[in-house]
Amino acid sequence: MKIKELHRDDVKVFLELTDQVEREAAYMLMEPGERKSGHQLEKVKAFINDPHSTILIAEAENQWIGYALAFGGKANRNQHTISIVLGVIQDFQGKGAGSSLLNSLEEWARERGIHRIELTTVVKNTAAVHLYKKNGYEIEGCKRDSLKMNNTYVDEYYMAKLLWG
């Protein structure tokens, strides 16, 4: 498995990957088709140019199988923090892609002096909760009724990992 940083030339392929993950996954924030492609294209290009953010891609068997997005704080008081989003296509879940992406993301963060990595995940998404705990993330709290899925309110965990100190 290879992990690489997303380049400007690969944005359309990345958007296809996010679309596939959102079609296959029950617990992503955005529903399939909810994103508007023209707007997303410009948003991702701006993201790539942001020194406080990155998008990493996992590749295996000559295909893109997952991604990790990290977006950093812009204010002086939160520049030590990044928030992350992780997505892996269904056929490669449970095969190490998530851990590889998290490890590469942590390496990227350490190189930039990032101290805190944070995320939210749906409480019922036990596979994701297990992945994050296995990689050293801790549950810091619960956002009650934070999302509405299939006309039912669901809770999300706040999870984080401190990289040093």
From TrEMBL:
GO molecular function annotations of the record: acyltransferase activity, transferring groups other than amino-acyl groups
UniProt cross-references to InterPro entries, sorted A to Z: AcTrfase_GNAT_prd, Acyl_CoA_acyltransferase, GNAT_dom
Start and end residues of each N-acetyltransferase domain: 1-164
PROSITE patterns xrefs: GNAT
Cleavable signal peptide: none
Name of the protein in its database record: N-acetyltransferase
